[in-house]
Amino acid sequence: MIDFYSSSCGACKYLLPQVINLCKKGCEDSCPVDDSWGIIFLKHNVRDDYDELTDLARFYAIRVVPSFTFFQNGSPIKHLLTRDKQRLQEAVCHVREWLLERS
């Protein structure tokens, strides 16, 4: 999962503790985040030093932050635009369940 963010985005800063929590602890006791199910969490600042969109943000057509994109085998499988911690957690758990069903 890539968390596309901007350092000047208040909602991105608000969600940062949730993203960190998901990386460390998982969604809930029944949905732990670990390497065994293959979700890797990355953060990408969409603005470069000149306040231009980065190539990666342009490639994935990121227009709004915070924006979360989930990948499988290098291809996007789910895209989420949200400022809601609960929706983010639900999306991570949903993707986890989807990946587990296909493994």
UniProtKB/TrEMBL annotation:
Leader sequence range is none
Q: Where is the Thioredoxin domain?
A: 1-90
A Pfam family of the record is Thioredoxin
Which InterPro entries does UniProt cross-reference here? Thioredoxin-like_sf (IPR036249), Thioredoxin_domain (IPR013766), TRL4_chloroplastic (IPR044176)
Q: What is this protein called?
A: Thioredoxin domain-containing protein
Species of the source: Adiantum capillus-veneris
